[in-house]
Queue: 4 jobs
Job 1
Amino acid sequence: GVPTTRALAAVRTGETVVRDASGRPGAILTRVARSHIRVGTFQYFAARNDRDGLRTLLNTLIERHYPDCETPLEVLRAVAAKQGELVAKWMAIGFIHGVMNTDNMALSGETIDYGPCAFMDHYHPGRVFSSIDQQGRYAYARQPQVAVWNLAQFATCLMPLIGDDDAAIEQASAAVDSFIGVYQREWLRLMGRKIGIAEATEDDLPLIEDLLNRMSTEKADFTRVFSALRRDPKAVSKEFTEPMAFDLWREGWEKRIASEDDPHSVMAAANPLRIPRNHRIEEMIAAAVEGDDGPLHSLMAALADPYAEDPRYAAYEAAPKSDERVYRTFCGT
């Protein structure tokens, strides 16, 4: 349910590609999107001081994605809102993009170019998987901050079309900062639904944050905690190294959702049972390199409807064993 580019085709080329001093079977992955206009596309023209190119590109962006906008500032605010909603959706499913540079932010609001990405197993806000992210710039909890930084670069590109006086700079800064409010509202809404609250308010924030803190401390699996919550709240404590940590939280949670009409249905729609876990991805890649596409098709079938109860795919719900954990992902992933 997260806006993203989609895979149209994957074709083996028969050529050998050299990666890490070893030969790998080459292939072309073709992806489609509503467009491929990125922050980096604007930077290309801005770096050359090509104002006509910027204007043409902006008009194209407006025509294709933001027909209700007329000015560069309106576009900047609209893009910030799209990104706020998008990143909140990433956070709600434990997704880590891995390389959120400006050329990997699509202005359509779709997820694009997530190469060394990963879904978290054990929850931790500082989790990093990408092998090229040595400093943790794109860590799970830093994704909103990086999005704001990218939007600031977009605003800088638009300044020749907005104006260079103090008022214009202040307006552009406010448009970039509007991301924060959108993101926070969407994050609260989505995380509230993950614990069965249809319309969470600021009063529910401590309850949500308390659970996440306990999950981090007790090394609980992000997806399995919430999927267990939708199935059998009393069984969630099994996902914690110290079960009492969850049981203490559950007391307050049960009081809160007692006033909700149908918390189970809300959670069932918000919490996937299956995600593309890193060890399953590695398993699929290893088999495909040897010419066996079976694990690929099995994984795709399991993920076709990740929210649906389906005993055929129970094995794909399991967290990795200690010797199956993948701690680094790569652009080739």
Job 2
Amino acid sequence: MQTSILNPVNASLPEELRSLTYKEYDERIRKAIAQLGDDLVILGHHYQRDDVIQYADYRGDSLQLAKVAEKLGDKKYIVFCGVHFMAETTDTLTSEEQKVILPDMRAGCSMADMADIDEVEEAWEAIQAQLGDTVIPVTYVNSTAAIKSFVGRHGGTTCTSSNAHQVLEWAFAQKKRILFLPDQHLGRNTAFDMGIPLEQMVVWDPKAGDFEGLECELEETRMLLWKGHCSVHEKFTVEQIEGHRERDPEMKIIVHPECSHEVVQAADDNGSTSYIINQIEAAPAGSKWAIGTEVNLVQRLANDHPEQEIRLLSNTICPCLTMNRIDQPHLLWVLEGLVRDEVINQITVDPETTKWSQVALDRMLGIS
């Protein structure tokens, strides 16, 4: 399977768009949006930078935007301010007539890239040889269309950090074991919350082509975790949590379940991006929070809730660098291209991959 990138226009931003003022970018972006009218919708992930997400018609996490995408049948152009796998998912869930556009093709996801389809196919053969037909694959939506398609073909489904508990409950009702891709931390944290001991979890290392950290007989395992992670959420540590508590015992710690197991266990609370947002919005004035997730979201929450003390858990800035590649110049580039009937950086997924990816996604949407 290959995801197609149509009309990349050399994937290079024109020189004329590299050095405008903020006001010039803003005026031209808003003019293009007005010219495109009802043909256009802009989707923005919560981790997107402020100067871009301000133009989004819909903001959300992966599950929210997946559900929105299914209902956008009247939109000719869908500009996704996020990362590559999100645009792939949107193309999978929308019609052939609609065009999904990613403003900057460099906006990828290091976690998604950690699950290569060839390595997954090889791992599946090896796991089947050792454990037989006792395993069902589940992939976090932070994965490529090829991985979603693999999961769909093998009876599995996708999940988000919002619905991971529901999805794993469904999966365990199907088979004894789950192969969880590509984020080992979300899989481990979710399964642990469901009562599965760490001793019954094992990590598959695709580079070694074998399991690592096996603390029990293979037959006793329940969770087979792919050796992948989020480069942002792995930066948060127990030492950071302890430091905040020493400085201010009233500080509440909330983190994303893509953080390590040790960090999630040390925090006061954990949950998806939407969960974190909802907790902050419901908190009383005077509340104090250190949040372990992407910095753009944390800063936005702090700006939106000045009645609370909100800070990033880490002392160093933790941005999603690939998400941040979507900026005003690239957004303007693709929008003005559409005004000229020139589609730049269209993302398409081939029909066979779309078919099985949609099976996996539909199973998830049916569960949640």
Job 3
Amino acid sequence: MTNWINTVSRDHVERGVRGRFTQANHGKPHMLRKMARGDWLVFYSPRTVFPDGPPLQAFTAIGQIADDAPYQVEMAEGFTPWRRNVDFLECIDVPIRPLIDELNFIEDKSRWGFKFRFGVFRIDDHDLEVIRSAMVRHGQVRATVD
């Protein structure tokens, strides 16, 4: 099993949670093809709204890949992005800043935002557990977005 982070604005994350899917890298299939059923996927939202909404800098959703292969959907004429189905956990948004020192994937703590420029990337089990425990802790949950 592999753990992933997908960098997506919160408004797009909420759309995915409602529809139980994820897209990546502006609808391209490359990284989605690397994911397997059961892989964990954490969503990091640098902004509330794409492309120029207010900064958020928080983990905003978490779930597991629930299918075996990417598929395409037609969202608009000429735009058919690739998706994967995701079973989302109920969770709360968690700001990244209090977690930076604990996260292994952030090698240079002074330039912590650099890694997110890749869009989708792998993280180790330790980092997944740090993030997951923060998102589902204390019995506080955010119900699936309506």
Job 4
Amino acid sequence: MSLLRIIYLFLLPVLGLFTTTNSIASDQAASWDFGISYTAELMHNARGGLETGSTYMDIAELNFTRSSDNGQWYGYLFYTNNNSFSADKVGDTQVVSNIDSEQMLRVMELWYETEISFGINLKAGLYDLNSEFDAIEPAGLFLNSSHGIGPDYSQTGDMGPSIFPFSALAIRIASDLGAGWSLQGAVIDAVAGDPEHPKRTDLTLSSEDGALLAVEANYNIHNWRFGIGGWQYTQPTEVLSEERLEHNHGIYALVRIPINLNSHSGFI
């Protein structure tokens, strides 16, 4: 039995009892938020790559949040068309656009988050690793995927490490240690989605798949941020070279510093 399955079998009934017991008292205070967005991109490969030409890509997104005194539920689903700029025109490894995907309708995230005690926060469900790990705020200003999660991390796993467009079941625990320090760790199903049916949202946990273990520590002070993190797969998994690596692991570091250009503040 996989480590992730053992944790889920033990923890999810406890979470279910906790949310059910407290839902009667908190329903009147609960609030719902919904969001809908549509993003479109037109990209052109002028020279090199697989072939020159243009590609139109788009993504429609729906998300909801249900918040109460005890915690919150969050859900996010998306629909993308069948156009791929990287696969058809560029031929790069990590994709140029962060919305590049084959056509699919998928539930990307569906999790419950709550404070359990003493500043310890727990999140469990269908989870996007890059929403909290190896994520730095200024990266959102750029289009290319390499400005987000690093390719050494994003190209691990048989379907990737639970990042767009494939996600997996996970349990994440985060703690505010005080004095600007924070620590978070996650146990994630090592195979995001179903390799044989990639358009399906798959929630299967298997001992053969194993788990992805992730950890990250951060220090924030005066808008400066320094972070270090790492990952470890418990079972052999594919890497960028298409080999199966038995002990796939790695580390990364993050630095965010404020700058001042012509009296306008920004970050790098």
